[in-house]
Structures are given as C-alpha cells and as structure tokens.
Amino acid sequence: PYTPTPDDRFTFGLWTVGNVGRDPFGGPTREPLSAPYIVQKLAELGVYGVNLHDNDLVPIDATAAERDRIVREFKQALSDHGLKVPMATTNLFGDPAFKDGAFTSADARVRAYALQKTMASMDLGAELGAETYVFWGGREGTEVDGSGKLLDALGWFRDSLNYLAEYSESQGYGYRFALEPKPNEPRGDIFLPTVGSALGFIATLARPELFGVNPEFAHETMAGLSFPHAIAQAIDAGKLFHIDLNDQKMGRFDQDLRFGAENPKGAFFTVKLLEDSGYTGMRHFDAHALRTEDEAGVWAFARGCMRTYLILKEKARQWDEDAEIQAALQAYRVQDAGVGEAATRFSPENAAALKAHAFDRVALGARGPGLEQLDQLTMELLLGVR
Ligand code: GLT
Ligand code: MN
Ligand code: MN
Ligand code: MN
C-alpha cells in the first residue's frame, strides 16, 4: 500500500529532485542529475509528470541547435518512460538581469526582456504538452520603498500578464495561468505576498478567467497564515489551478521540506480539502531533499512526499467513516435556526419576521460545541490509535 501510480497525479519539478543542496552559506552538496535521468527515476517511483522552468532544461545561453538537441533528448526520455509535463514556468529570478525584478523592474528593457523570455518559455512548455503555466514572481518586489514604484509595479505586472495571456490565446496554447504568492525571500518584500493578494489582483486583469493561483504550503506558512484556509478560499473562488505541496516551520527562511514533515495536521487538512473538493489538478511537490542528503536521500524524500499524501488520503477516508467523529460533527452543526426560512432568503416579510423573533442569547453563548473532543479524536486517528 501507499505506492503511487500515475493515477494519483503526483508531479515533481526538475528543480526539486534536481536540487543540488546549495544554500546562501554553502555550495552544492550533491552532483547535478541530468533531466533524462530524473525522468527515468521519477517514472520508476510512480510519478505522473515532471514540471520545469525553461532553464532547468535549456541553459540561458544555449544556442538554437543546443536547445533543439536538449529538448529532443528530453522528449525521448518522456516518451520512453511515459511521463507528462503538465506545468511549465519561467526562470525570471536567477539571472542578474532580474536582480531588481522582471515584469516589475524599473528598467523598461528588463521588462521587455522578461516578456521575450517568457514567450520563448511558453513555446517550450506548449511543445512539451504543458497546460498550466505558473508565475512565481520571486524577484518582483523591493527592499527600498523609496524607489517609489509600488503602484507602478502593480501596473507593469498587470500589463505583462495581460500581454502574455493574449500571446497564449493568439498561439492557440490554451494555457491556464497560476500566480504563486510568497511574502518574502529572495526580496525583502515580494509583490502579491499571499493567496488573498493574488486573488484580488486576478480580478483586475483583462482576462481573469484565464488566471488562478498556485498556492504553496511553505509560502503561506512563512506569512504566518494557514495553508488549508488559503486553499479553501482559492477552491471557493474556482481558482485553485495548481498547488505546491511541501512543509515549513513558521518564522523561518523558505525551507521547502518534505510534504508532511513538519505539520502533519496541516498536511492532513490540505489533503482532505483537495480530495473532498474534487480537485482534479496535479498534486505537485515543490520541495527538495535536505542539504545533508546524498542521491539515495533524494529518492527517499520523493517517495516520502507521495507516501505521506497517500497515507493522509486514507486517513481522510477513515475520518469520514469514523462514527464517533461523525457524531461529534453532527452535534457541532446545529442545522435549524428555529426561524423557518426567515434567515435564509431575503424578503421584506422574512426580514420583519426575523427582526421580531426572540432569541435566547444567553443559551446561545452557553453552548459547548465539543471542539476539544472532535480535535482529540482527529489527533488520535492521525496518531494511529483509532
Ligand atoms: C523556486 C520557488 C518555488 C517556485 C518555483 C517556480 S521556483 O524554487 O522557491 O516556490 O514554485 O518558479
Ligand atoms: Mn518554498
Ligand atoms: Mn520554493
Ligand atoms: Mn513553489
């Protein structure tokens, strides 16, 4: 049990299992793995697909001939091992040209170059069959608000996304775009810091229906927010286009830990929301093995992410079938307000009836909803004694 198959729709990025263990204080601790080798290994583990930035596959300074050879070999590996590329994205953060932003750079030449690079990357993604295109604006932000660009930056960001959506439609790519929020790191403050910010911004775009969000567990946690709450709001808005599963301690640098490694309860409610809501998208792991690990540790990490998801999916089913938990839930939800339809549908008569109703306010405040017991039952189920 808990062995994944492609039907589980698990994906990893080339940059995740390919992470060589660099951090701001030290260089790589692992040898780079080639893209075709990663494809082969992920397929052996039961993964559905592999996602990429343009430069995870094709170096930024590759010639056209080198690009074509690399892409040809990668496509061969995909077809040999039956792996898909469901999502593509652009590296708009690694090169020094983007050190003060890409779409939100104060330098119009950098903004134009970011558009050019993204169109080329969208061409690559489309060639590989990607249907979702992610925008993580890692360098879109500031340390110095004296730059005076806070309002301009949002306008430039909007213009760029509108441009790229039109490009996708004009090429017939049919991409669904997913904005990935993050509060900080590498910038002091990143624009669109949370899922809520991104959802608000999407409503201001020219083609909002083409845009959704790609929430990441670690990023909402860095902002001190609840990941299940963030994805619930995205699901409610019909905007959960993609998801980055990993883990994170609050108040730390971006850790990108193995899914469920730190906060299994948050991971449980994440899995439960995805499964209960009928989310049909990819279960993408945006995380990497600890810097301490060798290659064996990398595959243990990847297997662990998927096993934990599948274990929690089974726990979610047990939770739904647990009679005591369901009874506690029933008792928690008082279904009848005792006022007929007066509180459910507005009419002048209903409003008048509701205004005239006498509530026992003291009794409402005195009720114990049983949440301590419900939570303890959940914990005991997660701890394996139910
Ligand atoms: C980078 C970042 C991630 C984003 C990736 C997509 S790249 O690793 O930390 O959160 O999802 O650009
Ligand atoms: Mn992260
Ligand atoms: Mn990350
Ligand atoms: Mn991410």
TrEMBL record:
Mg(2+) 2 binds at residues 216, 219, 254, 256. The active site is at residues 53, 56. It catalyses: alpha-D-xylose = alpha-D-xylulofuranose. One of its GO terms (molecular function) is xylose isomerase activity. SUPFAM superfamilies: Xylose isomerase-like. Mg(2+) 1 binds at residues 180, 216, 244, 286. Homotetramer. Belongs to the xylose isomerase family. This is Xylose isomerase. It comes from Deinococcus sonorensis.
